[in-house]
Design brief:
Elements (H helix, E strand, L loop, with lengths): L3 E6 L16 H24 L4 E5 L10 H16 L3 E5 L19 E3 L8 E4 L6 E7 L24 E7 L1 E2 L10 E2 L1 H5 L5 E5 L5 E5 L2 E4 L15 E7 L5 E7 L3 E9 L6 H18 L4 E11 L3 H6 L2 H18 L7 E11 L4 H6 L3 H14 L1 H11 L7 H8 L3 H26 L1 H4 L12
Parallel strand pairs: 1-2, 2-3, 3-4, 6-7, 7-10, 8-9, 10-12, 15-16, 16-17
Antiparallel strand pairs: 1-13, 5-6, 11-12, 13-14
């Protein structure tokens, strides 16, 4: 087998609108909207620098079916740059950019292959340096936005061909609940088709599902919400003379999304809490000095400042001030090292001796013991959710959400409910039960309801 190298990317979502964010200065919103184009530019740079023989793009080049003219022109510009470097491009369309979506009517350049939506055809890829045939590539585009058929069944390895086989597929393997179940299939379905590398798209979390054959989601090239945290980019894939495959991830994002936890344990007052937030902001800037970061602070633990965070408006006030400061930097075009605080998730509680409460013969003790028991038993957890949410099950959308909710998420919900119950009951207990009151600390620190 002739060795070769290719780049695998998916879910470019060019010109995303970032509609989930509010109260953003125009300069920050402009940077966010430009970030997908900047990531595309970095993709082209990686392809040229790494001297790949070709690029495969596994769907969702654009963010919506009525893709913007700017997004289409910028993508065409990137294709031309790849073509000028002698790099071929093989691509499919996904649910966000289906073939029937309105877009510029133009034939793709000669070095670009866009696969159709009927039967995966076989296209031979060549090595850039000498034109030797190195791989057979197949792909299947979405004709419309919603494809609910298992279209993986249409793929088939080219009979009698010993070249390396690559399949481009925009699909949901094994029912990932975080994404729409379009083109659903299983790993078994893909393995049986005999391909060497499944270049997948649609799931935005980077993952290598299998290595024999390789079944790979590169994730999207630029995070677009707090649900898309961590580094985003593409894979450069090397295939050697023995057909062995190796992957190297390359970061492409210019805006990094993250959730940063701050515990209030041991914080005595508002000043110490603000200092903890400022330290976290400094750490983020030092970790990513060359890019913009968007962070949600997850406030956890138990401590004296809990009441301050939940009742005094301190969280909203600090958020406004942090956003004001970063907005000034953005207006001055100081984007490198800029950290935009997206919000605070307050998951804190009042100070309590939880272990002692678990041993006490009290309503709060019983509540905590019941929560622990239900968390440890999947069967009891399901029974609890069915009984507690029974009045709402007539709503079809709520039924769907519950059916798609995993065990770990249900456990998290239960844990939060138990924490909220303990917090609310603390005021009742401290006013009526001396033995319960002894289990909480800092009674003069704002535990009154």
């Amino acid at each position: 087998m002739i060795p070769f190298r290719f780049l695998h990317a998916a879910d470019l979502h060019l010109d995303s609108r970032f509609t989930g964010l509010t109260h953003i200065p125009p300069a920050v919103r402009s940077l966010l909207r430009e970030s997908t184009f900047a990531a595309l530019g970095r993709l082209v740079g990686v392809a040229i620098k790494e001297q790949v023989d070709f690029v495969v793009i596994s769907g969702d080049v654009y963010d919506v079916s009525d893709s913007s003219l700017q997004g289409q022109l910028r993508f065409q510009e990137a294709l031309q740059e790849l073509g000028s470097a002698g790099i071929g491009v093989f691509m499919i369309h996904g649910n966000h950019d289906p073939l029937d979506g309105p877009r510029l009517v133009s034939n793709p350049p000669k070095h670009v292959t866009v696969f159709g939506s009927d039967t995966p055809e076989y296209v031979t890829a060549t090595r850039r340096s000498d034109g030797c045939e190195v791989a057979v590539i197949s792909g299947l585009s979405y004709p419309t936005m919603k494809v609910i058929e298992n279209t993986a069944q249409r793929f088939k390895r080219k009979p009698g061909c010993e070249l390396y086989h690559i399949a481009l597929h925009h699909c949901n393997v094994d029912g990932d609940l975080q994404h729409e179940t379009y083109a659903p299939c299983s790993r078994k379905d893909l393995i049986e088709k005999g391909y060497d590398y499944w270049a997948l798209g649609h799931i935005h979390t980077r993952s290598i599902l299998l290595e024999r054959p390789f079944i790979v989601y590169p994730g999207n090239i630029q995070g677009r919400s707090i649900k898309e945290t961590g580094a985003k980019g593409c894979y450069v894939v090397d295939v050697n003379e023995d057909g062995a495959t190796s992957l190297k991830f390359h970061e492409l994002d210019v805006v990094r999304w993250q959730v940063r936890e701050i515990s209030i344990q041991g914080l005595k007052d508002e000043t110490q809490w603000i200092e903890a937030v400022e330290r976290a902001l400094k750490e983020i800037r030092e970790e990513h000095p060359q890019m913009m970061s968007v962070v949600r602070f997850q406030l956890t633990g138990r401590g004296a400042v809990h009441r301050l965070l939940t009742e005094k408006g301190a969280v909203a006030d600090l958020l406004s001030e942090l956003q004001r400061r970063e907005g000034i930097k953005a207006e001055q075009k100081a984007f490198q090292g800029l950290v935009w605080t997206e919000g605070f998730a307050v998951e804190t509680g009042v100070e309590m001796d939880r272990e002692r409460l678990l041993q006490e013969d009290s309503f709060l003790g019983e509540l905590l013991r019941f929560a622990n028991f239900s968390k440890e038993s999947t069967e009891e957890l399901d029974v609890l959710f069915r009984s507690a949410l029974a009045p709402m099950m007539e709503n079809r959308e709520l039924r769907r959400i519950l059916s798609e909710t995993g065990v770990e998420e249900k456990r998290n919900w239960l844990e939060r409910a138990a924490e909220l119950g303990a917090t609310l009951l603390s005021g009742v207990e401290e006013s009526g039960k001396d033995e319960q009151k002894a289990a909480f600390h800092g009674q003069d620190g704002g535990l009154d309801t």
